[in-house]
Amino acid sequence: MGLSVFSHRSSLGVILTVLKARFLIISRYRGSLFLESLLPLVFAAMPILIGVAVAGGDAAAGQNFLANVGTADYKLYMLLGASVFIVVSTMLWIVGFWIRREMEMGTLESIYLSPAKRIHVVSGIASYAFIRSSIAFVAALAVGSLVFGVNPFRGEVYAAVAFLLLGLVPLWGLAFLFGALILKIKEANSVINSLQWVVSFFMGVFFPIAAFPPILRYVALTFPPTWMNQGVRASLLNLSYFFEAWYIHTAVMFVFAAVVPLLGYSIFLSTEKRLKRKEGVGQY
Amino acid sequence: MPDVIIKMEELSKTFISKDRKGLRSKKREVQALKGVNLEIYDGEIFGLLGPNGAGKTTLIKCLTTLLIPTSGTAWVNGYNILTHENMVRASIGCMLMGERGLYWKLTGRENLDYFGALYHVPKPARRKRIEELSTLLSLGDYLERSVETYSSGQKMLLAFAKALINDAPVLFLDEPTVTMDVPTARKLRKIVRDLNEEGHTIFYTTHLMLEAEELCHRVAIIDRGGVIELGTPQELKSSLVTEEVITLEGVIQENVVQNLREIPGVKSATIKSESKGRTTLAVICDDSRQLLPRIIETMVGNGATVDFIKPHEVTLEDVFIARTGRSLGVDTRVVAQKEG
Ligand SMILES: Nc1ncnc2c1ncn2[C@@H]1O[C@H](COP(=O)(O)OP(=O)(O)OP(=O)(O)O)[C@@H](O)[C@H]1O
Ligand SMILES: [Mg+2]
């Protein structure tokens, strides 16, 4: 059996090793780390500036927004949407590109050759994505608040954090669903690019999904990040939850948290298996 | 009878590949492995010899759980490749894709530590193992540099170290010397022999017949997905003793070769290499003394110029030529010369 000794400790070791390697590698790409941390701000600034431009001044924009959305604080509304979006996009991005890069470098095959359980490797990546997206969220919100002069600490802050964390769980599931897609089509850039826009559209980053025609609204409601986004906003800006009650909103998010990761992970595994029946993960 | 450590039963693999022609594509089946049955003994160096595209890598990928065979099955170290994947993986070390499969942004040591952890090697054992490998492969001075700064040969050595990180009983090496220079390749073969003496079973693929002849206890010759010969290098060569091999060099056209094949008593005539208008031809026949005048007559009569004739000792390449009518490849000749 060689030197392998299987234990809970060595399994934890796999998770931590994968996590550590991600940080070591990203720390050696200084330039891209800098750009990646800048991106959330640009993304949040865009709609806020458009809002000001279209409505003609801060007060007018606020009045319009109050009438349509239910809060005059359109800046915080946008900033929250953008910050939650950054979490979603960072998560999909990290998992998607991780798979693609490892495929290209042949390291995915090296991982598959090892007796490490897939769930442990994947947990390492998920932890990394969690840390990275949390940092991105805090950074976007902090700098955004300073730049646009809004105070995010209002309303139910703890509830907002809870919605954020609860929303992350199904996000992992989506990330691996997305990973399965990349494993299958062996391409990441165009998928990630187009998905960015679809995701930001459906989760209502810049506008309430109530503005959608009914069919689009239902589509948006099947998408877990939409609920995460609305949960965070509702608790901080005192807006209504979906279906008017916080407990229904929370219950739906729990269901997502229970179902989506299992679904995403099992689709990932079956894609992997199908690939091994065909040409293997070495083809890239 | 030695213990069997790898057993294959009717292992087959069919790929569906797409032939592309502009925008259109057509599906085509490629039978990379056709019902391979082999038994590898515990403690031997087993060589799988075959030309490009013979199915060597595909066979290793099936045995190492990277590919699921289309039909058939196999056991490695007593574990089935379809039902006990992780136990198979823990039993083996692999060097499969040359210098690929390493993290370029990490140092050599970080790479080895990473893969050690993935193999569940406990931290102290890992540290010790990395030191051992560093000495064994003389990695010392570049182990602390990131892999992107390595030369191609250094990357290969690190990939070899990676295959050894878990000190597994079975090693799969897929053409490990292919991009190495001659001294490094020789060093690697020496280490392979040493590892084997320590008790490791080694499954070694190559398309260099000299390498197989020099290193392996037993050799299987694989061609177009099927095993066509199996035995010790000596056995394979002596299967040809009733036949003789003549090498002819000169300016020899394809139609001449065709005419030679029609001479009764000539078993095969195959072009081994061609360069700068000079051709090397291998003719396998029953009785060279009797046939040589006829052979030369045919060649000259068809416009060929022959300037060198040599009957020679049978090599594994000749065995391959006799069985398939084709040469293993031009590269063999180059390395054979360098190896001297
Ligand atoms: N993913 C794939 N899709 C389609 N055909 C494939 C695939 N992988 C391998 N093949 C085909 O299967 C056959 C065997 O390939 P394989 O890589 O096993 O050969 P090999 O003996 O390792 O050759 P080499 O000496 O060049 O490495 C070849 O005809 C190859 O084209
Ligand atoms: Mg190969």
Describe this structure in words.
By secondary structure, chain A is an all-alpha fold. Chain A has one domain. Chain A has helices at residues 8-27, 30-55, 58-69, 74-105, 107-113, 118-148, 157-185, 189-202, 214-221, 224-237, 246-277. The radius of gyration of chain A is 20 Å and the shape is elongated. Chain A starts with 7 loop residues before the first helix and ends in a 7-residue tail after the last helix. The mean pLDDT of chain A is 85. Chain B is elongated. The interface between A and B is large, with 39 and 47 residues. The complex binds adenosine-5'-triphosphate (ATP) and magnesium ion. Residues 56-57, 174-175 of chain B line the site of magnesium ion.
Structural features:
heterodimer, A: 284 residues, mainly alpha, 11 helices, 79% helix, B: 340 residues, alpha/beta, Rossmann fold, Alpha-Beta Plaits, six-stranded mixed sheet, four-stranded antiparallel sheet, 12 helices, disordered C terminus, binds adenosine-5'-triphosphate, binds magnesium ion
Q: What do we call the CATH homologous superfamily of the largest domain in chain B?
A: P-loop containing nucleotide triphosphate hydrolases
Overall form of chain A? elongated
Q: Structural class per helix/strand content of chain B?
A: alpha/beta
**Global structural class of chain A:** mainly alpha
User: Per CATH, which architecture of the largest domain in chain B?
Assistant: 3-Layer(aba) Sandwich
Topology pattern of chain A, helix = H, strand = E: HHHHHHHHHHH
**Mean of residue pLDDT of chain A?**
85
Structure ligands? adenosine-5'-triphosphate, magnesium ion
Distance between the termini of chain B: 36 Å
Brief summary:
The complex is a heterodimer of chains A (284) and B (340). By secondary structure, chain A is mainly α. Chain A is built from eleven helices and no strands.
